[in-house]
Structures are given as C-alpha cells and as structure tokens.
C-alpha cells in the first residue's frame, strides 16, 4: 500500500465529531499528512530497523515517543515486541506497547505471554487494553458510587441482594467463527470485560485515584473470589431458527467452525466474593451471541424493605417491588433507579417508576468511543484503565479450572434458538440463588 492509499483509506472514516470547530478539514489534512505506511515482517529485526530509520527521519531529532499498537494475532505478539524493542525503540523518549486481547487462553499461556513480553519490556511499558473499561458508564461507575452519599453506604451485603452483569449481542459469529471457536464466549467476554466491571463495581475505596491504588483494590477483589465450580456455570450454543420467513443460521453453519464444535456462544455464571462487604451476595453474569437484543448493563437489586407497610398493596409479586439500580453501558447509555410510587388517585395503588438519567437527553455532547479514550490514556501514560499483570493472573486463576473441566469432560452446551433469550439453564441457575434476571422484565 502506498502512503496515499493509506490516507485515502483513513479519510473515509476520519471525522471531527468530538471537536466540531470550523477548521475541521484543515486539521484532518494536517493529520493525514502525518500518516505513513511501512511494510515488513513481524519477526524481522531488519524490517524494524528500516522502520526506525523512517521514523527518525520524521522525528527530525526532536524528543520523540513511540507507541506500538499490537492489533495482530496473539501468536506473533512476542516476535513483534522483541523486534520493536531491540530495533525500533525511541532513543530519547518513551516506548510503550498496547496489547489487544486475548491475553492467552488460560493461566499457563497467559503467564508465558507475560514472561516473554517482560524479557523485552518493563511492566510500565505494557498497556493491556480492554475496551470495555473505556466505556463512559463503566468510567462513571466509581463516580456514581464514591461521589454520592445515597449510594456509597448502601454498597454492601446489608442492602444489596444480588448484582447482575449482562452482555448480549443480537448477531452470531458471522465469519469470525474461526477466531471465536478457539476461544469461546467465556474467554472472549467474561474473563476480561465482565470480570473487570465486577472488580470495579465491588472494590473497596482506593487510597486515591492514582492508577496503582485503583488497580491494587481490583486485584484484592479478584483474589477474594470463591473458586468457580462447574455447577455454577451454564453454557449454551445457538441453533438455527426461522422467524418471519427468515432462517437464521446455527453456530455450526458458519463455514469456519467445525461441525461438531462444543464451543459455547452463551455462558452464565454465579460468582461470590468472600470478604466482609460482599459475603453471600450472588454476582451473576451472563454473556451471549445471537440473543433477542444487543446491550450491556449492570443491575443492582436491593433487598426488601424490612416490615414493609405496603406489602399487601404489592400483591403477590414482592420481588418486583424491590428497588433496582440499572446502569446501561450500551447502547443508549442511561442510569435509572426503580422506585415504588403511589399512582395518583383516591385509591392506594402502587406502581414502579424510574428515576431516569438518559444520557442522550441530558448531555448534548457526543460520547467518545472507548478506544479513543484508551488511546489518549496510553499516550498520556494514564494507566488506571489498563490491566496489570497480577490482575490478569487473578482473573485467569478464577476461570482456568472451569474452562479446563468443560473441555476435558466435553460438556455439551445447551442449544438455544437464534434470537431467543438464551438457554433455559440460565434461569435455573439464577433461581437456585433466588435471583430473577432483571433484563427479562417487559418494562426494562
């Protein structure tokens, strides 16, 4: 590819959607002039040395920093890092590397990867990116909790009955089956994105907002988690389904997936944190592809009001009468709190209403994309949204034994139709802990 071809490709998606000042096209031109294409082999020190020469020419002797973004297959991470480190490090500024997930497939491969990277880089040069941590509402989670007195004292087992972290996609693997089949939904979504949200949600108050202080608290939560048992995990795989004259394919219809694949496209798990704050509170998470809707949310269901005066007015379904805080991460970002309220009129009739903070209505500003925030953080050396190696070890330690057991015992995933609400087993799992999935309510 020539420089001009690359610039043409970049210009098709480049916008000034955050910075809407008048000289946008001028800024875009300036930016595009600084985009260059350089071709080479990932494992060739000679090719990286040529890249170094080219970079030096553009840097013109100024103090220059270099950020390498490894959006490449994981089996060549280490080769690329070795060559970049030895032949294309910055001479007078910093050199950092952003590593895209997956960070290994289990505890062992993750440890090998970390050890290999650390032969060539120090921990503070490695930025392990989890784009979910850059989402506006995940960022807002600690503000919501630590800056609001109405939430902070309630964030404990005394008041919270259960916490649900839910991720769903309304499409299947569509062509990415080859990559996905090697990893499955637990590695792809749960072990990283959802567990990271859980750690941020459940951590103790950090000493400060400094990256290391926040990451220390997240590690403590992960290390306090009870080992995950096979009976607390439900897996599923979507099957073909016809709806409105359209037939949706099954997972194994994907040409890049083996016909007898047992890889889960859906998983639900019940997790527990054995510490003083969360003892006995079920944290339920589920993630799936080819479900009835697309979204990601955190649902906090509070306990019943003790000795509630209005019990008889709620009728039989007391569970629906408890308060619930919902943080909708995507799409259509929002935070709402379900409260009980009297319906206006002469009778005493109660209903549930939402106190609603809908981002699009409240803030006219465009919400930055998660990657925009994380790339800017990496350039500025702000590390709190990136994952430290001991954090990664603790996350893998939780899921590796169950993943091994699923694979060794060849556990067959429960089938669920494309576009449905997922396998029935997920409801049984929730019911065992006296939980009802909040995303199944019609009122949402």
From TrEMBL:
Residues 1-140 form the Glucose-6-phosphate dehydrogenase NAD-binding domain. The lineage of its organism: Eukaryota, Viridiplantae, Streptophyta, Embryophyta, Tracheophyta. It catalyses: D-glucose 6-phosphate + NADP(+) = 6-phospho-D-glucono-1,5-lactone + NADPH + H(+). Its EC number is 1.1.1.49. Catalyzes the rate-limiting step of the oxidative pentose-phosphate pathway, which represents a route for the dissimilation of carbohydrates besides glycolysis. The main function of this enzyme is to provide reducing power (NADPH) and pentose phosphates for fatty acid and nucleic acid synthesis which are involved in membrane synthesis and cell division. Belongs to the glucose-6-phosphate dehydrogenase family. Residues 143-437 form the Glucose-6-phosphate dehydrogenase C-terminal domain. It comes from Gossypium schwendimanii (Cotton). Pathway: Carbohydrate degradation; pentose phosphate pathway; D-ribulose 5-phosphate from D-glucose 6-phosphate (oxidative stage): step 1/3. One of its GO terms (biological process) is glucose metabolic process. NCBIfam families: zwf. This is Glucose-6-phosphate 1-dehydrogenase. InterPro entries: G6P_DH, G6P_DH_AS, G6P_DH_C, G6P_DH_NAD-bd, NAD(P)-bd_dom_sf. GO terms for molecular function: glucose-6-phosphate dehydrogenase activity; NADP binding. One of its GO terms (cellular component) is chloroplast stroma. It comes from the Eukaryota. Keywords: Carbohydrate metabolism, Glucose metabolism, NADP, Oxidoreductase.
């Amino acid at each position: 590819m020539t420089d001009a071809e690359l610039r043409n490709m970049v210009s098709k998606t480049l916008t000034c959607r955050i910075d809407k000042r008048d000289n946008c096209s001028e800024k875009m031109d300036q930016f595009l002039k600084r985009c260059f294409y350089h071709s080479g082999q990932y494992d060739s020190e000679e090719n990286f040395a040529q890249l170094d020469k080219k970079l030096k020419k553009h840097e013109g002797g100024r103090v220059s920093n270099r950020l390498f973004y490894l959006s490449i297959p994981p089996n060549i991470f280490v080769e690329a890092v070795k060559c970049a480190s030895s032949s294309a490090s910055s001479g007078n500024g910093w050199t950092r590397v952003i590593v895209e997930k997956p960070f290994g497939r289990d505890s062992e491969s993750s440890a090998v990867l970390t050890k290999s990277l650390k032969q060539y880089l120090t921990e503070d040069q490695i930025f392990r990116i989890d784009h979910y941590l850059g989402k506006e509402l995940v960022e807002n989670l600690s503000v919501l909790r630590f800056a609001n007195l109405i939430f902070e004292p309630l964030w404990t087992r005394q008041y919270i009955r259960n916490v649900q972290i839910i991720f769903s996609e309304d499409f299947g693997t569509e062509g990415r089956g080859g990559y996905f089949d090697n990893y499955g939904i637990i590695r792809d979504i749960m072990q990283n994105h959802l567990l990271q949200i859980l750690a941020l949600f459940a951590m103790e108050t950090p000493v400060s907002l400094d990256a290391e202080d926040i990451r220390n608290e997240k590690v403590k939560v992960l290390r306090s988690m009870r080992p995950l048992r096979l009976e607390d995990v439900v897996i599923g795989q979507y099957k073909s389904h016809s709806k409105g004259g359209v037939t949706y394919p099954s997972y194994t219809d994907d040409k890049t997936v083996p016909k007898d694949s047992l890889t889960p496209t859906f998983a639900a798990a019940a997790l527990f944190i054995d510490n003083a704050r969360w003892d006995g509170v079920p944290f339920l998470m589920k993630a799936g592809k080819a479900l009835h809707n697309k979204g990601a949310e955190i649902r906090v269901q509070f306990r019943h009001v003790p000795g509630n005066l209005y019990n008889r007015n709620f009728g039989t379904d007391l569970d629906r009468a408890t308060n619930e805080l919902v943080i909708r991460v995507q799409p259509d970002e929002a935070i709402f709190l379900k409260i009980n309220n009297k319906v206006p009129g002469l009778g005493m009739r109660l209903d549930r209403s939402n106190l609603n903070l809908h981002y699009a209505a409240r803030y006219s500003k465009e919400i930055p994309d998660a990657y925009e925030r994380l790339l800017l953080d990496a350039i500025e050396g702000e590390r709190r949204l990136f994952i430290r190696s001991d954090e990664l070890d603790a996350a893998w330690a939780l899921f590796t034994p169950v993943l091994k057991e699923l694979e060794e015992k060849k556990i067959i995933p429960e089938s669920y139709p494309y576009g449905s609400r997922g396998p029935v087993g997920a409801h049984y799992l929730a019911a065992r802990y006296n939980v009802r999935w909040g995303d199944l309510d019609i009122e949402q």
